[in-house]
Amino acid sequence: MIPRQPVRQPRLGCLYLPPYRVEGISIAGEQTVVHVPELDVAFDIGLCPRAALSAKYVALSHGHMDHSAALSYYFSQRNFQGMGTGTVVCHPDLAGPVRRMLKAWADIEGQQTPFTIIEIEPDQELEIKGAFFLRAFKTEHTATSLGFVVIEKRSKLRKDLVGLEQEELMALKQKGEQITRIIEVPLVCYTGDTMWGAHFEREDVLGANILITECTFIEPAHRSRAAVGKHLHVDDLARLVRRTRAEHIVLTHLSRRTNMNSAYRFLEMALGEQDMHRIHVLMDIRRNQERFDQQLDEAQRENEA
Asked: Rounded to the nearest 5°, which phi and psi values hold at 196?
């Protein structure tokens, strides 16, 4: 009798949501890493596929193993491949345990891998790339947890100065007057593992163009299980979809047992057909590939026109 072949590893989910790619793997209880290459940040690192190594920053939502297990490997491989020292951004409660974990690995390996740990409190920001900032916010889970929003800060002319001639603006500037104002544009929000809470009232969360959110319990009958684990249920997602202005809503942290066809049926029942065009399931490899192929065809036709 011929034995079965080994179980295949899940493929990397990938979405192109212009101008950003959202790629990674997210399976509830097993592994979650969500990488946005253009922003140099990966959210969580339960697994470290090769693609995630290019992230200069890992924004760690919480310490559960399926979200943090590959952190040591991330640091090690960044160093081994000459990619520079990796950086983890985490809640202060996790900084000490992460240092102790890395000390244990140094003892095991007999060498010290370089690493950087940046502690971040809710509502604090970190400049990650030019005008792009990573902002943390408090979430509600069974462990200390954070969500993150990437904000772009843009300089705009003060509203009361719009219409003035260039010479008048230069004169004001030479007098030392501030003629510009900073506006904040939330680009990408990542909720991590969380139940419903006040963070879903935040303007930077609701205003992000790309919202990456967990929806662990997709079946209507699993409301009580979601409450016990402090996760989102599909009914919570429906509330969120009605409030968010996101053009794209990327669902993560579905169970391996979730059948994709059933998932879309439950989603449409809860959300209504009118919002389904905004919904993307990160691990729906087939649909996401079809979507990418269509984007590729459209781009080629535009180039040929």
From this structure: -65, 140
190's tokens:
């990542």
Cα separation, 261 vs 267, in Å, equals: 10
Residue with tokens 């640091």, as numbered in its chain: 75
Separation between Cα atoms, residue 235 and residue 239, nearest integer Å: 7
CB 59 within 8 A of CB 134: yes
CA 191 vs. chain centroid, Å, equals 7
Choice between 77 and 177, residue whose per-residue pLDDT is larger: 77
What is residue 261's three-state secondary structure?
A: helix
Residues in the chain: 305
3-class SS at 29? coil
Domain boundaries, the chain: 13-304
DSSP 284: -
How far is Cα 206 from Cα 150, in angstroms, rounded to an integer? 13
Q: Are strands 41-43 and 57-59 parallel, antiparallel or unpaired?
A: parallel
The second-level CATH assignment, the architecture, of 13-304 is: 4-Layer Sandwich (3.60)
Residues 175-221: tens digit of each pLDDT: 777 767 889 999 999 999 999 999 999 999 999 999 999 999 998 88
Burial class (CB in 10 A: 0-12, 13-18, 19+), 115: buried
